[in-house]
Design goal:
CATH superfamily: Glycosidases
Number of strands: 11
Radius of gyration: 20 Å
Strand order of the largest sheet: 3-4-5-6-7-8-10-11
Structural class: alpha/beta
Distance between the termini: 14 Å
Oligomer: single chain
Bound molecules: ligand 9MR
CATH topology: TIM Barrel
Helix content: 25-40%
Shape: globular
CATH architecture: Alpha-Beta Barrel
Length: 356
């Protein structure tokens, strides 16, 4: 009998080259289907532009069992200036998911970063603001009721430094931070009672202060009766955090007994731009794979009922938000697959952790 772990091991060779920098030379061999070896759903973020891309869709059908819209299910897409809704793109994603037998995950109903002129005009009128807030959640969460398995109801409530919570158009319009979060969960429960309802945030493993604030917020909201039924940790991993930090956070997160979603995993090789990163790429890939392995192992260690899904924020490196915009140097490799659809080292880190 073939030892699956041995089969998965040593997926890349590190070849020395003249500059002292080691080049990562992939060895072509068949890779296991991630969704087949993992005992929980494997998700990916997607955009309508990718649905007709054959390399992308082949990877999705081979390795993934759940889709999240990268941006086309957000208020920025759906809500128009006159308060009307447009659903063409998210409906296409929902239809693709249905046709391909993939679970559909909803992202996101209420996000501090997506203020909207329709709501900004109403901040002085609490009753109308609340009515429009409820209408938005009821319409959007109700649209794919029965198909969407879970919603990020509130996204990124904790402040950037992790010391407190974000004041935003939603807290201003509804008279407080807890008030906007509680109301969003109550409305989402009415609109999509079968969906798992998530409070989703980022840097929870990267920044222990932020992780602790998030955990306190969850505790307080649950005590206040918020129907939070899932906990989302985005896991845009910082590859330089100390070993063990991810494991500690996942254990704390698990203490609520709720389903956990690793909701947006990626792990940038890029430095933060403050200091030049002189380390060879090989060293950065080693850090990356070690942290991704830790996350995947910590997720595997959860009780089965708490393993909601393990989602990466895109499929190939070229699909990543980190490969768009001014900071892109064309070199980053933050996802499971390279531009041609080959498995990156972090694919093998996850596959090794998930292999039975
Ligand atoms: O990857 C997403 C990018 O394409 C969008 O332009 C952006 C704004 O909608 O959102 C990005 O996704 C973010 C996610 O919704 C919340 N967590 C951080 C993600 C990366 O910025």
């Amino acid at each position: 009998m073939i030892d699956r772990r041995a089969f998965l091991a040593a997926p890349v060779a590190l070849a020395a080259c003249g500059s002292g920098e080691a080049a990562v030379v992939p060895i072509e061999r068949p890779v296991p289907s991630l969704k087949s070896i993992a005992p929980f759903p494997i998700g990916a973020a997607c955009m309508t532009g990718q649905l007709s891309d054959r390399v992308w869709s082949n990877l999705v059908s081979e390795h993934f069992s759940q889709l999240t819209a990268d941006w086309e299910m957000k208020m920025e897409y759906i809500l128009q200036r006159d308060g009307s809704f447009r659903f063409d793109a998210p409906d296409r994603i929902a239809a693709f998911a249905r046709d391909q037998n993939l679970r559909l995950f909803g992202h996101t109903l209420i996000w501090y970063a997506q203020s909207h002129p329709w709501f900004e005009a109403l901040t002085g009128d609490r009753a109308r603001f609340a009515a429009e807030y409820d209408r938005y959640i009821a319409t959007v969460a109700g649209r794919w009721r029965g198909q969407v398995v879970g919603w990020d109801v509130v996204n990124e409530a904790v402040s950037e430094d992790g010391q407190g919570l974000r004041d935003c158009v939603w807290s201003q319009g509804l008279g407080g931070i807890d008030a906007y979060i509680l109301r969003a969960f109550e409305q989402a429960k009415l609109a999509a009672p079968e969906a798992v309802l998530f409070l989703n945030d980022y840097n929870l493993e990267n920044n222990p202060v932020k992780g602790a604030t998030y955990l306190r917020l969850v505790e307080r909201l649950l005590k206040a009766g918020a129907p939070i039924t899932g906990l989302g940790t985005q896991s845009h991993l910082d590859i330089d955090i100390p070993a063990g930090q991810i494991t500690v956070f996942m254990r704390e997160l698990a203490q609520f007994g709720l389903p956990i979603h690793v909701s947006e995993l990626d792990a940038s090789l890029r430095d933060d731009g403050r200091l030049p990163d002189l380390r060879p790429r090989r060293q950065r890939i080693e850090r990356q794979t070690a942290r991704v392995a830790e996350l995947a192992e910590a997720f595997m260690a959860l009780p089965r009922a708490q393993q909601f899904a393990f989602t990466t924020w895109g499929v190939r490196d070229i699909d990543s938000w980190l490969r768009r915009g001014d900071k892109d140097d064309g070199q980053d490799s933050p996802l499971l697959f390279d531009a041609k659809g080959g498995a990156n080292p972090m694919f093998h880190a996850a596959a090794n952790a998930f292999a039975p």
